Amino acid sequence: MIQSTLDKEAHLKDLVVKLLREKNLSDFDMLDSLFEEVKQELQNQDKTSDMS
Protein backbone atom coordinates (compact mmCIF):
# COMPACT_ATOMS: atom_id res chain seq x y z
CA MET A 1 0.00 0.00 0.00
CA ILE A 2 1.65 3.20 -1.19
CA GLN A 3 0.58 6.41 0.48
CA SER A 4 1.74 9.94 -0.11
CA THR A 5 3.89 11.58 2.52
CA LEU A 6 1.00 13.86 3.45
CA ASP A 7 -1.29 10.87 4.00
CA LYS A 8 1.34 9.25 6.20
CA GLU A 9 1.82 12.45 8.20
CA ALA A 10 -1.94 12.72 8.76
CA HIS A 11 -2.12 9.09 9.85
CA LEU A 12 0.84 9.66 12.17
CA LYS A 13 -0.87 12.66 13.76
CA ASP A 14 -4.14 10.75 14.23
CA LEU A 15 -2.30 7.80 15.73
CA VAL A 16 -0.34 9.95 18.16
CA VAL A 17 -3.51 11.75 19.31
CA LYS A 18 -5.29 8.41 19.74
CA LEU A 19 -2.42 6.94 21.73
CA LEU A 20 -2.18 9.99 23.96
CA ARG A 21 -5.92 9.92 24.66
CA GLU A 22 -5.96 6.19 25.40
CA LYS A 23 -2.52 6.10 27.02
CA ASN A 24 -2.12 2.91 25.02
CA LEU A 25 1.23 2.23 23.42
CA SER A 26 0.31 -1.10 21.87
CA ASP A 27 0.54 0.51 18.42
CA PHE A 28 4.14 1.57 19.07
CA ASP A 29 5.54 -0.60 16.25
CA MET A 30 3.17 0.93 13.71
CA LEU A 31 4.00 4.41 14.98
CA ASP A 32 7.73 3.71 14.78
CA SER A 33 7.50 2.35 11.24
CA LEU A 34 5.43 5.32 10.06
CA PHE A 35 7.97 7.76 11.50
CA GLU A 36 10.74 5.87 9.70
CA GLU A 37 8.85 5.84 6.38
CA VAL A 38 8.13 9.58 6.53
CA LYS A 39 11.73 10.29 7.52
CA GLN A 40 13.07 8.24 4.58
CA GLU A 41 10.70 9.90 2.12
CA LEU A 42 11.66 13.38 3.31
CA GLN A 43 15.36 12.50 3.02
CA ASN A 44 14.79 11.16 -0.49
CA GLN A 45 12.93 14.34 -1.45
CA ASP A 46 15.83 16.43 -0.11
CA LYS A 47 18.34 14.41 -2.17
CA THR A 48 16.18 14.75 -5.27
CA SER A 49 15.80 18.51 -4.85
CA ASP A 50 19.53 18.91 -4.22
CA MET A 51 20.27 17.25 -7.56
CA SER A 52 17.97 19.59 -9.49
Write the SSE topology.
Layout: H1 5-22, H2 28-51
Helix pairs in contact: 1-2
Outline of this structure?
The chain is mostly helical and 52 residues long.
Describe the structure.
Helix 1 runs antiparallel to helix 2. The chain starts with a helix and ends with a helix. The chain has helices spanning 5-22, 28-51. The chain is 81% helix and 0% strand. The protein is elongated and about 45 Å long. The chain contains two helices and no strands. It has 52 residues and is mostly helical.
Overall shape: elongated
In total, how many beta strands? 0
Mean pLDDT: 76
* Tally of helical segments: 2
The low-pLDDT segments are none
Tell me the strand percentage band.
Answer: under 5%
Largest sheet: none
Distance between the termini: 28 Å
Name the helicity range: over 70%
Class by alpha and beta content: mainly alpha
Order of helices and strands: HH
- Computed over alpha carbons, the radius of gyration is 13 Å
Key features of this structure:
single chain, 52 residues, mainly alpha, 2 helices, elongated
